[in-house]
Specification:
The chain is mainly alpha-helical and about 170 residues long. The chain contains eight helices and four strands; from the N terminus they run E-E-H-H-E-E-H-H-H-H-H-H. The protein has a two-stranded antiparallel sheet with strand order 1-2. The relative contact order is 0.19.
């Protein structure tokens, strides 16, 4: 048996989970959240929508398909580069570059990481931020990050793309 704590600070609950229940839970698809920013930035780099030197000012807040996202990272008082945006999980940067790329480029990056392609019924921006669309299992999300690290093999991206993404993950 395993203990898990869930909820917000005002509604914390404890529950005992069996190993079977935990295994079932990690096999359930969920929205990927910020992990998908790896694929989104790689897609933008691979497609030429941005370069490793493309800098964008974070305006601290962005609305994507009715979702208001507020960046909580420190304000650096200067534009961010892709590796900095990934390190800081900057919603404004990813939303901006997602508006410059095609669904096909996002889907290529997603599938190269072993993730499902985006849902055509959602916008590229919402998909690139993990707000809507197809889910992925926690196992698949961990596998995607492992592929960027080269385990078992890196995705078929240019070396410059891999370098930028890896730099962002190491910051």
């Amino acid at each position: 048996m395993y203990w898990a704590t869930c909820g917000t600070s005002s509604t914390i609950r404890r529950r005992v989970w069996s190993l079977r229940e935990l295994l079932d839970i990690i096999q359930q698809p969920l929205l990927p959240g910020s992990v998908i920013k790896i694929a989104a930035l790689a897609a933008a780099l691979e497609s030429g929508a941005i370069t490793a030197r493309t800098s964008i000012v974070c305006t601290r807040s962005v609305v994507v398909d009715g979702h208001r996202l507020t960046c909580t990272h420190p304000d650096l008082h200067r534009p961010l580069t892709p590796d900095e945006a990934l390190a800081l999980s900057c919603n404004v940067y990813v939303a901006t570059v997602a508006g410059r790329m095609t669904r096909a480029s996002l889907d290529r990056a997603l599938t190269s990481l072993g993730l499902p392609p985006s849902d055509p019924s959602t916008s590229v921006r919402a998909s690139a931020l993990g707000l809507e669309g197809n889910g992925a299992t926690p196992r698949a999300l961990v596998g995607a990050v492992a592929r960027v690290a080269g385990v078992p093999d890196p995705p078929p991206w240019r070396a410059s793309t891999l370098d930028t993404i890896r730099e962002g993950l190491h910051r």
